Amino acid sequence: MEIRKGIHWVGVLDPGLEIFDIVIPTQWGTTYNSYLIEADEPALVDTVKGNFTEEFLEKLEERIDLANLKHLIVNHTEPDHSGAVGELLRRAPHLKVHGSRAAIQFLREQVNMDFDAHVVGENDSLDLGNRRLRFIMAPFLHWPDTMFTYLEGEGVLFTCDAFGSHYSPPEGKLLESEQAEDFTEAIRYYFDSIMSPFKPKVQEAVAKVGSLDIDLIATGHGPILDRDPWRVVDLYRRWSCIEEGQAKKVIIAYASAYGHTKAMAELIAKGVEEAGNVEIALVDVGVAPESHLDELFEEFDALIIGSPTINANVVEPVWRALDRVSAITARGKAAAVFGNYGWSGEAVGLLEERLEKMRLVVSHPPVKVRFGLTDADKERCLSLGRFMAEGLQ
Predict the structure, then answer these.
(1) Residue 91: enclosing H or E segment and its boundaries?
(2) Per-domain residue ranges for the chain?
(3) Residue-wise over 151-175: b if at least 16 C-beta within 10 A, else e?
(4) What CA–CA distance (Å, rounded) separates 99 from 264?
(5) If you placed Cys at 249, which of 70, 148, 170, 279 could pair as Cys (CB 3.0 to 4.6 Å)?
(6) What is the pLDDT of residues 256-309, one digit of tens each?
(7) What's domain 248-387's architecture?
């Protein structure tokens, strides 16, 4: 399918995909977008997921003899975009492969073969004869290897995952201008699921493309943005905005079997409140919806998490809640643990170990109480809350 003069979509549709990356439901399916740029030296931008390799190569070879294809641009090496590279290189070993330093390294370890690699940097260009590509580094959108590729003078930006969506259009119509239904919800869901842990990097990338003349954004997933690409860029700008000047936020998350851990959590919250000028979110993760936890854990300044000990372990709702905390955005933030027990009390130690492995800073000794709370135990809980809040001032 020609999306602009001499630029062909040669990707594949995956409308039946229900789960992406093990944990992300995809109610609209997805696409794996790859683009052939016709030029004196033809170039291919990205490939597709490995189990679609044959379908992809058949489609590509309908447009070009692989012997005449000169360049492969690798914007990102996650296997849903690089899965067909190995077979493509076996059939076209002469290809010059262009990518960021990280992309070339990752690709070598994926395909385990020699290839003609060309590492590119910020604003490096590739002359295709009658067309020119420029490379824009966009690390951590959402892998460290990511870059954008800009077709100079023609207003086309190839962005791989950024600005995309897990959305397989009805009837296979790939252009945004052909969509009968608004798919903004899919764009937002994709951002929240994949890009939101990297908001500062999103801001950097949006700033970089702000000076470009862009008429079309050729994404790695979902419809190609040909109607109003700047609308989606602006959505990314707004969604990734980190508001300044807000009160610091402390999350106190817990589960409680018989009320003792809950009582500890409430006392810790009271201690935080006494310190003043701190927003408090007290949440029972045993009953809170997952969507609420996702929203809650998206931005915070300190995390205090507690669990009773049952069968020498942290209770499952607390483990599940901690799984929803991004180790990327939470890294370096203050944390503490607490818990109640009757026999052995392993939960607080296990939680502390997990937080440290996630690179949060556990800055206060765990508060661990056996059965009912004494006045001294209550004061320890209050003191923990005050300490954590004062550390944010």
Answers:
(1) helix 85-91
(2) 2-239, 248-387
(3) beebebbbbbbbbbbbbbbeeeebb
(4) 52
(5) 279
(6) 999 999 999 999 999 999 987 899 999 999 999 988 998 899 889 999 999 999
(7) 3-Layer(aba) Sandwich (3.40)
